[in-house]
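Ticket #4471: structure output looks truncated?

Reporter: J.K.
Steps to reproduce: submitted the chain below (304 residues) through the standard prediction queue, then opened the result file.
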Amino acid sequence: MIDSVAGFAEALESERACGRRVGLVPTMGALHTGHCSLIERAAAECDLVAMTLFVNPLQFGDTADLAAYPRDLDGDVTVAGTSGADIVFAPSVEEMYPGFPTPPSSSVHVAGVSERLEGASRPGHFDGVATVVAKLFSIAGRCRAYFGEKDFQQLAVVRTLARELCLPVEIVACPTVREPDGLAMSSRNVRLSPAERKAALGLHRGLDVGLRALRGGERDIDVVKGLIRAEMAASPLVQCDYAEIVEAQTLLPASSAAGDLRLLVAAKVGPVRLIDNEGIVLEPVPPEGTFVPAGALAGTGKER
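Returned output as attached by the reporter:
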């Protein structure tokens, strides 16, 4: 376990000097099975796995939300080691941001993929994410970094950041891990009451309704979004923030139900804000009057 920036950088540089490939798994702690899957994949593909454990205050607009974020350092270190992590970097806020609570004079903004969806609902959130990730990548050096698709917009921000700043980091996207009933695993789930936990399934049900509509041939984007919202609103405990369908590569609103698409939802369930998403690839619908052989469009809805 390392708690200093210099110590972490030196440790990883020493490993690379010995010819070892480094896998990096950035987290904010409160580890669950989803985090474990990232560590396990990194361990399978790299020679050494370094997990970062840092609750980043810059990405919290609400001080109450920051204070309520679950923390269990000892438990997280145990889980990380059991899952295959070799090093845990757990710095203090002061180590990462000297002079805090005065904000750092330098920050990172990733235009284009940051402003909509979570960016609109949580102003400044992705600037905080981009700033801490850029700093972690700079400290860690050349590595493969593992991120979950559950936070799909965050993944897009990180990919853009690494590419445009020419950081020596390969971003590896890993599938969302779900509970047996379909709820996406999140550190925030522990804050749900039993009734809220049950209601939270409305997010996944909404996505499922949207996927089934698209696979069934519905091609009106607004109709599909309406179906998703209606399913989420079926529970009075779920307050839908957004239900959107975007182009997976750009996060721009989908202009048609074709290509690589992502369905994204966000809602407050009681006091807890949750997000979820699913992907689907759809073949373009041929222009009216075009001859299509029987069965040619069968199975065009491919989930991702």
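Triage note (M.O.): checked the attachment and the full token line is present. The CA atoms of residues 64 and 297 lie 50 Å apart.
Status: closed, working as intended.
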